[in-house]
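Q: Got a minute? One more chain.
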Amino acid sequence: MNLNLYELSLVIDSQLEEKAISELRSRYIVLLEENGATIINIDHRGIRKLAYDIQGKDRAWRNQADYTFIQFEAPPTVVVPVEELLRLDEDVLRFMTIRPRHTPMAMPSPEEQQARDRRPRDGDGNDDRRPRRHRSDEDEDEE
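A: Always. Here it is, folded:
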């Protein structure tokens, strides 16, 4: 049987208790495995600020949500039934399943990501603080 690589992004309502969020995430992982998927990586990012407000099941607007990314290998027939259940689940604010073109990489731990985010950067993406000289500045110095 032909297996494809997929990544499922879950955006779960942060108004739920941590235990309920964990159970919801586990429910979809078990559902994937029961339908023949092999879980490759689970990246739970935790509660993050949303780019825009999303209305929850109680009609109140949410400005943050719990993010989880699940990478799995499965036959193409697995995705549709899982997405149908996600569409009906009012605690899932958004979801998206993609087929990445690259092999999954190990995600940095939250500590590694925070260390990367704290590093000073200039506009060119370099890690030092000293300003870069432009070619036109060097030409003026030579004259």
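A: The domain at 4-122 is CATH 3.30.70.60 (Alpha-Beta Plaits).
Q: Perfect, thanks.
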